[in-house]
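Lab notebook, bench 4. The sequencing result for the construct came back, and we need a structural model before the next group meeting so we can plan mutations. Quick request posted to the team channel:

Model the 3D structure of this chain.
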Amino acid sequence: MALPKLTPDEKRKALQKAQEMRSRRAQVREQLKKGTLTLKEVLESADDEVIGKMRVAYLLQSLPQVGKVTSQKIMQEIGIHESRRVQGLGKRQIGALLERLG
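Done. Here's the predicted structure in token form:
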């Protein structure tokens, strides 16, 4: 599948949007690390484009005392694939995450 040809203006807008998304994701991660935002609040706002498109592993690693190995272990136990995004989580998976880390 070929990529669409974009005009320089369209490219600039796409790059600007991507940068906004990255900075907003970084803000969410920072708030999780500081404890000003909880995992439950993040999962409840999964319809937000920034949070919904965030990988679950990336989200879990943002929590205090949860690193790469711990997040992988938790995701395997619950049955969440490593490439799953927050918007793709089912109700049982969300419930299991909140029970485990809530």
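The two ends are 42 Å apart (CA to CA).
Will bring this to the meeting.
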